């Protein structure tokens, strides 16, 4: 399947982990995990957390094996200095394969591409995570002003829009929350547009990145950040998956993008 992951391809895989309750399938996932991963699964106190972790690790292994001739159980991983996981198998390095994972209550998302950096974030917008105090304390000044300009009933949506964009950017850079959230900001130059502004202290430039945002379903909001390359136009393929069982192609409508033209496959 690596030949389907061309220079412009971005593949997104979405798993509703709470719906995966077949014990035979869950046990099959467990057989794919390393000893350290199985020990980590056992450390979670709550069943939902254990299942999320198990499905996440199985999803990563099964999906990566769709692209490269490595058995799911044979994948090896490490984390960078900021905790970002990456495959260390020589096949992944040679293919210049890049992936990123995000999860929220009920949903795991994985993005895969080649030759570029990739970051994504997904949030359950119906959850309790919204807090205007986070905006006040951590967001950039321009974002705080824009946040309080929208009607109160729209602020929850605006918060999650900003948050998912911010998370996708810091994850694409592979540095997590070591990047101060108030040193870069997002604004909306037109109805469906988005634009990033980056403080020079971060030693980065806005033209390097592309952004998209969409809702996999009404309760979730997802943002994707990829490194811009001159030689291609991004093409999205999005699948809902039960790892090792079934999958379904999706064609969501992107609600915001930094690009003038969106391409779907």
Automatic annotation (TrEMBL):
GO terms for biological process: lysine biosynthetic process via aminoadipic acid. It comes from the Bacteria. GO terms for cellular component: cytosol. InterPro entries: 4-PPantetheinyl_Trfase_dom (IPR008278), 4-PPantetheinyl_Trfase_dom_sf (IPR037143), AASDHPPT_N (IPR055066), P-Pant_transferase_sf (IPR050559). Residues 30-107 form the 4'-phosphopantetheinyl transferase N-terminal domain. Keywords: Transferase. Residues 118-225 form the 4'-phosphopantetheinyl transferase domain. SUPFAM superfamilies: 4'-phosphopantetheinyl transferase (SSF56214). One of its GO terms (molecular function) is holo-[acyl-carrier-protein] synthase activity. PANTHER family: L-AMINOADIPATE-SEMIALDEHYDE DEHYDROGENASE-PHOSPHOPANTETHEINYL TRANSFERASE, PHOSPHOPANTETHEINE TRANSFERASE. Belongs to the P-Pant transferase superfamily. Gsp/Sfp/HetI/AcpT family. This is BatI, batumin synthesis operon, 4'-phosphopantetheinyl transferase. It comes from Pseudomonas batumici.
């Amino acid at each position: 399947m690596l030949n389907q992951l061309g220079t412009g391809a971005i593949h997104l895989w979405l798993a509703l982990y709470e719906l995966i309750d077949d014990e035979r399938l869950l046990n099959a996932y467990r057989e794919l995990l390393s000893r350290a991963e199985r020990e980590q699964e056992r450390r979670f106190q709550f069943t939902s957390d254990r299942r999320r972790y198990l499905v996440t690790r199985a999803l990563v292994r099964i999906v990566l094996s769709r692209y490269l001739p490595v058995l799911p159980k044979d994948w090896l991983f490490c984390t960078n200095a900021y905790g970002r996981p990456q495959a260390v198998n020589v096949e992944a390095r040679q293919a210049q394969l890049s992936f990123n994972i995000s999860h929220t209550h009920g949903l795991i998302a994985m993005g895969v591409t080649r030759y570029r950096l990739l970051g994504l974030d997904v949030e359950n917008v119906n959850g309790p995570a919204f807090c205007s105090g986070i905006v006040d304390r951590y967001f950039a000044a321009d974002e705080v002003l824009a946040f309080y300009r929208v009607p109160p009933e729209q602020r929850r949506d605006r918060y999650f829009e900003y948050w998912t964009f911010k998370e996708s950017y810091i994850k694409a850079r592979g540095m997590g929350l070591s990047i101060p959230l108030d040193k870069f900001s997002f604004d909306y130059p037109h109805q469906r547009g988005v634009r990033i502004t980056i403080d020079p202290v971060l030693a980065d430039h806005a033209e390097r990145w592309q952004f998209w945002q969409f809702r996999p379903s009404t309760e979730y909001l997802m943002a994707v950040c990829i490194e811009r390359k001159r030689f291609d136009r991004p093409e999205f393929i999005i699948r809902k998956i039960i790892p090792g069982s079934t999958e379904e192609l999706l064609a969501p409508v992107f609600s915001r993008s930094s690009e003038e033209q969106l391409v779907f496959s």
